[in-house]
Amino acid sequence: MKAVVIGVDRYRWVDDNGIVQEASRGDEIDVSQAEFDRVTWENEDGETVRALEKPGSKAAKEATVEPNASDGETPDETS
């Protein structure tokens, strides 16, 4: 299944072929349903936290926001 990394900056897992994979926050990855379900925990406030979310969800969209010119990039100037 497709999933987006949301709850951690860097996510590592072992894929179905036994190969260690790595992805960063906002990356879309392929994982098994069991892996998707496994990476949920409660934080110190008792809130449920997920490392992965389904693509298109609000949390996934927030994790994949792209930087723009106001974030430090200089836009091209034209005369």
Structural class: alpha+beta
- Share in helix: 10-25%
What's the number of structural domains? 1
Beta percentage is 25-35%
Adjacency order of strands in the biggest sheet: 4-1-7
Shape: globular
Query: Roughly how many Å apart are the termini?
Result: 49 Å
The count of DSSP E runs of length 2 or more, i.e. the number of strands, is 7
* SSE series: EEEEHEEEH
Cα Rg: 16 Å
Look at the structure and give the mean pLDDT.
82
Total helix count? 2
In terms of per-residue confidence, which ranges show pLDDT below 50 for 5 or more consecutive residues?
Answer: 68-79
Secondary structure elements and pairings:
Blueprint (H helix, E strand, L loop, with lengths): L1 E4 L4 E5 L5 E5 L3 E3 L2 H6 L1 E3 L5 E3 L1 E2 L4 H6 L16
Antiparallel strand pairs: 1-4, 1-7, 2-3, 5-6
Notable features of this structure?
three-stranded antiparallel beta sheet, disordered C terminus, two-stranded antiparallel ribbon, 2 helices, single chain, 15% helix, 79 residues, alpha+beta
